[in-house]
Design brief:
Elements: E1 2-6, H1 16-30, E2 34-40, E3 58-63, E4 66-71, H2 82-98, E5 107-112, H3 115-128, E6 132-136, H4 142-146, H5 154-169, E7 172-175, H6 180-186, E8 194-196, H7 212-218, E9 225-230, H8 240-249, E10 255-260, H9 266-276, E11 281-283, H10 292-297, E12 301-305, H11 319-325, E13 330-333, H12 337-345, E14 348-350, H13 356-368, H14 370-387, H15 390-412, H16 416-421
Parallel strand pairs: 1-2, 1-5, 2-4, 5-6, 6-7, 7-8, 9-10, 9-12, 10-11, 12-13, 13-14
Antiparallel strand pairs: 3-4
Length: 425
């Protein structure tokens, strides 16, 4: 099977969409399929090229058996609306032109957000006359309105119409959460063509091997109890809560709060940390993917946080699966589906989003109780290994792609009258 996958993000970028796409693509290529990913030169989140890369009209490399085609894109940091939108549109235009040099695939997959990357799949479907699978990792444009990046108005209404068009025209839709399904169906995607394939953990990378104290020493954390937030420092995450919790915990010399990652809010958070005089907060910056097992090994408890919003009740933060794979208990400041999964796994505590008091109390409780930490960590590890092994999820995804190709082929074989009514021969 020949698969072309459109994704704005790909390794060596380390955000959730890059990890999800690359891990699936690698497993598909290993299974003997011809996989091409069309992406841009790595620059997330700062809008700066990674060392060794150039922002050319077109360049190609092979990573883990996957052909990665990088097209020119207007580079912009992961902050601000206008420049990011220009970046997204430029990628869609370049990716569309980049189809000219690619062999016609058996199936097209595109992932959204970013929104225009998702729509690139519709263009490819029309050019190549091949079935199209649209992956929805976040509800867009709802999410950008929720974090305050845009206000409701004419542009948002236009984007909502494009969103509905994409749902109607896709041959299959893959949602990363159960909670997205109702929204997608209401906007034009029939339930019959929606499948849910959630995120998971890559057990080839995330293992519990390694000496924890050695890992802590590497990052200047020796002898400390480490509560870590690992991920994007964005508007959606409400990371001021971590600083406020650190203020409440500043008299406990055992505890340090670690922020690992980068994003639109990082510089402001660093400045506020200095203004508050918080010596118990460390901002480590973005780390390469292969460093993440060591980061998790140095972590005693994972803080997974989002702002309080009804929209965020529908999401499943990908870091939940990594933390559970590494047997790290979780303090979860997210309601809805994520909280239900945490409770099912028995992997940690849920707190009210943006409650510094509850966050500080949960971290202190775990710092005080080694047996509780071990029990929650072991429960989460068992749960994610049994239910969210990335290799098994990638195989399910592959089965769905093959089924979509077969269904599309059967539909094309209908005579015009049958095709009009949807009847089978």
């Amino acid at each position: 099977m020949r698969i072309v996958f459109f994704s704005h993000y790909y390794p060596p970028e380390v955000n959730a969409p890059a990890s999800r796409t690359s891990e699936h693509a690698r497993i598909w290529a290993r299974a003997g399929h011809d996989v091409v990913v069309v992406t841009c030169a790595p620059n997330h989140p700062g809008g700066r090229l990674y060392p060794g890369y150039a922002n050319r009209l077109r360049q190609s490399e092979t990573i883990d058996g996957v052909r990665v085609v990088r097209v020119w894109t207007y580079l912009a940091a992961n902050e601000g609306f206008a420049r990011r939108t220009l970046s997204y549109i430029s990628y869609a235009a370049s990716a569309t032109l980049g189809m000219v040099g690619l062999d016609r695939p058996d199936i097209v997959v595109s992932t959204s957000p970013q929104f225009f990357c998702g729509l690139t799949g519709l263009v490819a479907k029309m050019i190549w006359r091949r079935p199209w699978v649209l992956e929805i990792r976040d509800l867009w444009p709802e999410s950008i309105v929720t974090v305050g990046a845009m206000r409701k108005g004419l542009i948002v209404r236009l984007l909502e119409r494009l969103e509905a068009l994409a749902y109607r025209r896709a041959d299959r839709i893959v949602s990363v959460t159960d909670s997205f399904v109702a929204h997608i169906a209401e906007r034009g995607g029939t339930r019959e063509k929606i499948a849910v394939i959630k995120n998971g953990a890559n057990f080839e990378l995330f293992t519990q091997a390694g000496n924890e104290e050695d890992c802590k020493r590497r990052y200047g954390l020796a002898g400390r109890f480490v509560a870590a937030y690992v991920g994007t420092h964005g508007m959606a995450h409400g990371l001021d809560t971590v600083l406020e919790a650190a203020k409440l915990l500043r008299d406990d010399p055992r505890i340090v709060l670690l922020l690992v990652g980068d994003g639109a809010e990082r510089e402001r958070l660093d400045q506020r940390k200095r203004e508050m005089g918080l010596g118990n907060v460390i901002l480590l910056g973005q780390q390469p993917k292969d460093a993440m097992p060591g980061i998790w090994a140095a972590t005693d408890v994972s803080m997974i946080l989002l702002r309080r919003s009804d929209l965020f009740k529908t999401v499943l933060p990908s870091k939940m699966f990594e933390a559970m794979a590494m047997a790290r208990p979780i303090v979860l400041g997210v309601e809805g589906e994520a909280r239900a999964l945490l409770d099912e796994a028995g992997a940690g505590f849920g707190i009210t989003p943006q409650s510094a008091e509850e966050l500080a109390a949960a971290v202190k409780r775990l710092a005080d109780d080694h047996e509780l930490r071990a029990r929650l960590g072991a429960s989460g590890s068992t749960f994610v290994r049994e239910n969210y092994d990335r290799s098994k999820l990638a195989t399910r995804y592959l089965d769905l792609l093959e089924e979509t190709i077969a269904t599309a082929g059967a539909t094309r074989s209908l005579d015009p009258a049958q095709a009009e009514t949807g009847a089978w021969p």
